[in-house]
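Input (structure):
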């Protein structure tokens, strides 16, 4: 009886030990998930799309890592920002991005919008306050408002929303690679780690094409 009990005990102990040793490998994730969207990269390129919102603190803090990363991208990688509205109160700042994009002033205003909101506590919550802010950055106020309220902006918001829905984007920041792989901070283990995962995916896609 005692021998049987001891045998059972050691067998259970060995099984538990084996399970514990295997747990890290079992829990390991690639840092991304495969998704299906209608997005495709330009021929010979790898498209990386960032989903963000100006009011998101995680998006703001990622910028300090994202900007130098973008500058080091090879010529076969295309980076594209997409402002995403996951709630009604996200819409004004999402409109702001696409209005600035249509006017060709994103490069001149992108960092300033983030800084104003997250460092200076500036409230940009409606068309007038946002237009006033962009005017202070040297953007024509009337032209900005026209773009802000125009069809092009509304269409861009709709298109981005559809891509995000297809890719099951539930929060920002998020990165979509080649329209096939969604990378999030939760999957990657942190927002900065997202960029390392994207680097790996870019190499993987290059290898697939060779």
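Output (sequence):
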């Amino acid at each position: 009886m005692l021998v049987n009990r001891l045998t059972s005990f050691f067998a259970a102990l060995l099984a538990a030990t084996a399970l514990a040793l295997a747990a890290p490998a079992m829990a390991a994730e690639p840092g991304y998930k495969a998704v299906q969207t209608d997005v495709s990269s330009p021929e010979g390129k790898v498209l990386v799309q960032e989903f963000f919102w100006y009011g998101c603190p995680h998006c703001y803090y990622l910028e300090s890592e994202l900007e130098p990363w973008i500058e080091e991208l090879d010529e076969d990688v295309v980076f594209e920002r997409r402002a995403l509205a996951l709630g009604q109160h996200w819409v004004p700042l999402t409109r702001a991005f696409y209005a600035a994009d249509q006017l060709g002033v994103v490069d001149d205003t992108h960092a300033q919008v983030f800084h104003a909101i997250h460092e200076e506590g500036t409230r940009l919550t409606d068309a007038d306050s946002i237009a006033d802010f962009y005017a202070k950055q040297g953007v024509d106020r009337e032209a900005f408002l026209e773009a802000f309220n125009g069809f092009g902006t509304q269409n861009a918001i709709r298109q981005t929303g559809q891509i995000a829905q297809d890719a099951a984007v539930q929060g920002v920041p998020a990165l979509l690679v080649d329209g096939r792989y969604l990378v999030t901070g939760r999957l990657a283990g942190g927002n900065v780690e997202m960029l390392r995962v994207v680097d790996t995916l870019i190499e993987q896609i290059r290898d697939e094409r060779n």
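Notes: Residues 33-209 form a domain with the Glutaredoxin fold (CATH 3.40.30.10). The chain has a mean pLDDT of 90.
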